[in-house]
User: What shape does this take?
Amino acid sequence: MSAQQSKVLAIIGQGYVGLPLAMAAVDAGWAVIGVDNFAAKVDQINRGISPVEDISDRQLNAAITSGLYKATTDFSEVAKASVITICVPTPLDDDRKPDLRLLRNAATGIAPHLVSQTLVVSESTSYPGTLRDTIIPIIHQYKSEETMDLFFACAPERVNPGDEIWNQKNTPRLLGAIDEESKVRALSFYESICDEVVAVSTPEVAEAAKLLENTFRLVNIALINEFTQLCSTSGINVHEVIDAASSKPYGFMPFRPGVGVGGHCIPVDPLYLTWWARQNGSKALFVESAASINHEMPRYVAERALKLVSSEVRNPRVLILGVAYKSGVGDVRETPVSELRDHLKSLGAQVSWHDPLVPNWEGSKQVGLEWECDVAILATLQPGMNLNQITARDIPILDCTNRLSNQPGVTSL
Ligand SMILES: NC(=O)c1ccc[n+]([C@@H]2O[C@H](COP(=O)([O-])OP(=O)(O)OC[C@H]3O[C@@H](n4cnc5c(N)ncnc54)[C@H](O)[C@@H]3O)[C@@H](O)[C@H]2O)c1
Assistant: This one.
């Protein structure tokens, strides 16, 4: 007899995407099994300590205490679920190409335990065709199409960690299913946890739409990063220009310059797109160009910062404020601040860093804001960062966040 129960959800991967999904599903009355292959993380979660900023320990503990949530490393638990969502990372390999190993491992991990009538959904970001050509064939190696009714859909997650307005529930959910029955089941699941579900005709449309969304951000950030350099050369304040352009009520959307792009999505997903284009005999030249402009930003920021130091100072001491890839999170994946630090060092600087949300970073410990330095670079403004301690000192500051404008000693990017 099947152990499957109707309102049981299994989520593969309990990170920035999987854990908030688990909590949203618990709120909607689902019993949730959070499967993760990182035993220490599973242990931490089951002790009620949340590994992601968007989920508080209190919320996690309430879910555990209600009996509706538990984390496990045991993939056989997925046999109890009517819906399984895959929320594992889709990073780049050493050659900056899509690395689907974790996704394949997740599919391989669940496949032997699947029971008939289960809906399998991929929420991980990937290039069009991943569900149909990678995930489904792996599962069918274990469970043949002829002997078992399985349903498949793709619902790329759009969560924006640290966002206080948009979350799992109120962000419309894209959904592309492999066939009509899969669509009906996936709609029913997502409508139980999201305010709005946007069904598209195929999984490939949903996969491509996710890449388009993040590539849109990448190219606009690149445009403004390039524009910033043009303005700076002519002594024009780019932020005043952006504010001026924003007064147009249509056809313009403001983006701000920064150290570069970071995180699991914006620097990574467009490279899934460029790789996919090349696989299909095309080239996404515009996207490649945008990626390379952003990639050059840390060098530009390093050079601008060192120009604020007297040329008499040899080996200037530079304090980097904020190393996470964006404000409000401790996530340092793909943070452009790593490149910034490396460029500063290659230009002879001694570099230290401070970030209240990052306990340690690439094997180094942070310093306090009182650290003696010749210039500070505000790379990421973090909550809890007492900047008065820096602005009160007579130290030049390069502000890459446009949050300290008009303060003495502060230069905006
Ligand atoms: N973080 C974001 O802001 C965001 C937003 C939208 C979409 N996404 C996409 O969602 C996916 C997940 O990203 P994330 O940020 O949640 O990653 P994450 O690193 O925060 O969490 C992923 C979890 O999956 C676990 N894991 C890895 N391989 C596994 C396997 N084979 N079996 C079981 N568990 C496994 C890891 O231990 C980790 O706990 C990626 O495709 C990402 O591009 C991320």
User: Anything to note?
Assistant: The CA atoms of residues 229 and 300 lie 8 Å apart. The mean pLDDT is 94. The pocket of nicotinamide-adenine-dinucleotide is lined by residues 12-18, 35-38, 41, 87-90, 102, 105-106, 109, 124-125, 157-159, 161, 264-265 (CB under 6 Å).
